[in-house]
Amino acid sequence: MGSIFQIILQRLALGLVTLLVVSMVIFVAVNALPGDFAQAILGQGATEEAVTQIRADLGLDQNYFLRYFGWLGNVLTGNLGISFAQMNFASNMGGDQLVGVAEQIMPRFRATMFLAGVTAMIAVPISITLGILAALYRNSLFDRAVNIATLSSISSPEFFLAYILILVLAVLNPVFPSLSNVYDGMPLGEKLNRTMLPALTLTLVVTAHMMRMTRAAIINLLASPYIEMARLKGISPMRVIVRHALPNALAPIINVIALNLAYLITGVVVVEVVFVYPGIGQLFVDSVKIRDIPVVQACCLIFAAAYILLNLMADILSILSNPRLRHPK
Amino acid sequence: MSWGINLILILMVTGAVAWGFRFAGQRVTGNKPFYRDMPFAIAFGYVFGVVVIVGAMLYYFQPIDNKGVPASGVVFFRWAVQGFMGFAIAAYLFRLIGRHVGTEGTRKLFRTMPLTAAFGILVIIIYAVVSIFAGAIAPFGQEEIFANANIVPGGNPLLGGNPEFPLGTDQIGRDIYSRLIYGAQNTVGIAFATTCLAFFVGGSLGFLASIVGGWLDQLLSRAVDVLMAIPALIFALLLMTIASVWSNQLGIDRTMFMILIIAMIDSTRVYRLSRAVGQNIVVMDYIEAAKLRGEGMGYLIFKEILPNAMAPLLAEFGLRFCFVFLTIASLSFLGVGIQPPLADWGTMVKDLSQFINFAAFAPNVATAPLLAASAIALLTVAVNFVVDWMLHKSSGLKE
């Protein structure tokens, strides 16, 4: 048992180091700007107070090391700074009710997690079922049709799938609303109804990948001697796959599911913009357009953290599900 | 919820018919093995396929006017089916021509080619021709603005169209047809240039790391690890924010920055592959011989390793092009990619997207954004089909 914990701890430490270096990359990228940062952001028409406030807030007079560790310390204590848009508004209009970036992001992050959760609940069962069926009836007409359909949906841009779904399910046959303006405290049924179109779009994108990997993982095993044995015993093909092949193919399947969840958290950006879903991706894109650096920095860090965490989980789960990796020689 | 109940009813009836079909088959053919050993799921599949095809045909051939109310769903369905059939027939004819024209090698290639790959190659050829000769094919310039904005696609004056502009004009009066054609030049051209740059940088660094090894390999590989830990689209958006500040100060076009940024991000993926491939090659004897001959690093990379790594790199080039193309389209769709007045498909989809809401009563109006979006989808699907076929062929997988 000891070695498992050791391996997991090693992976966790590696993930933390990666995250630290990623935060450094983000910091360097943002601070490599030429000239006066504050002036460049606010433009020529900015008031003197706004510029000084931003300068003071970012500590532009300090050197890079102090600034980086100051920023990191703030991030770790949950202080992500204040968005430029709010600062600018306050300095022009007067008023001091500034909402920090952390409070701005929190409800959006919950909304995105909800969307990703709904998508995963639809996509995972469908893709595993389809993958098993495609492996069972491999090289048949059904397999080829599913292959062509999934390859097409993997390679189409997300907004194409989104608009096709809007066209079919919202405009031509009004089944679901095309705008997903959900908010906290909405009844769950209504919330699900409005989340359905973005969730279906994401489902189309991730199902294809998961299903293909499930099919490939099962077919890889079919040449093994124990499958041959099971066939010779006269077990039905369905039972051969579900009882004998599937448990041994679990490691790659779990791995690909975790990777696709990582994709879900970060790949929501375009889909959220299409459906005006109030998630973190929408906030990110809006901030990118108005160059609101503190928000962009914070969102980027959150996305990277989620991505690294889920990749880590995929790694650990695939070690746990494979005895050969659990007891390294 | 009535459609849900209908669906369950249809499935139940299909199941009953499937059972009957198998039973009848066993009786009529005197228990032939085909029917005797048929699992229920397969019988269900056959009957369900027939139900879907019959349903689609009934839907396809129903009249589009129901007491003066146009049934837009049928119109879109007909376009989709016609497009699908048209491309399938074109791909079939293309493969047929390829089997009888050309050298012995290409004819042999075409003989074993699946229809999807033929479709892919045909589409890639069409896109290449259109993007190279865009200036000659397009009737108008991409930045030309006409007096009439928002002309409806279709060219029927009764419905608000104009035969001069077959696909209509956009909100500020530019010809959509011409912009779609120029979009091939801009979007595909920029994506191609970016992919080439990414391959040049990532490929040479990867091979260099595999030859030199040691600290250089460690340094590059750890740097790539870190860069790959940030999701690609997120990283691109972050860097584009910073680039937008730079481009204002330095006076360099934002599209240039985009090319550099995406090439940088994608070169990390190319580096991974080329390093892995390169490491398998540098242990070969002929590399040892070349080193002992005293060949330089450039000769080793381009004359010894590159020719032997061509097959996996070519497949990766196709996939990488798709990713780059989709990233650029997504960035443009989000408003931070290729900047106007250059015509670009992603931006066109975003700008015209609200017309989809008119699809229920005026199907023509909704075609413009869908055409731009499907222009993107068609190319990536085509490239993926070709790459899929190439991988399948080189891996020799049969089952």
Describe this structure as you would to a colleague:
The complex is a heterodimer of chains A (329) and B (399). Chain A is an all-alpha fold and 329 residues long. Chain A folds into two domains: 1-99 and 290-329, no CATH class; 107-289, MetI-like (MetI-like fold). Helix content of chain A is 78%, strand content 0%. Chain A has 15 helices and no strands. Chain A has helices at 2-31, 37-42, 48-58, 64-76, 84-93, 101-136, 141-155, 158-172, 188-221, 225-232, 237-245, 250-275, 280-289, 293-320, 323-326. In chain A, helix 3 (48-58) runs antiparallel to helix 5 (84-93), helix 8 packs across helix 9 and helix 10 (225-232) packs antiparallel against helix 11 (237-245). Chain A is globular, with a radius of gyration of 24 Å. The two termini of chain A are 15 Å apart. Chain B is mainly α and 399 residues long. Helices cover 74% and strands 1% of the residues of chain B. Chain B contains 16 helices and two strands. Chain B has helices at 2-28, 33-36, 40-60, 72-100, 104-111, 115-132, 134-137, 176-212, 214-228, 232-250, 254-282, 285-293, 297-308, 310-334, 345-352, 367-395; strands at residues 65-66, 69-70. A two-stranded antiparallel sheet of chain B has the order 1-2. Chain B is globular and about 80 Å long. In chain B, 37% of the residues are buried. At the A-B interface, helix 1, helix 7, helix 8, helix 12 and helix 13 of A face helix 3, helix 4, helix 9, helix 10 and helix 14 of B.
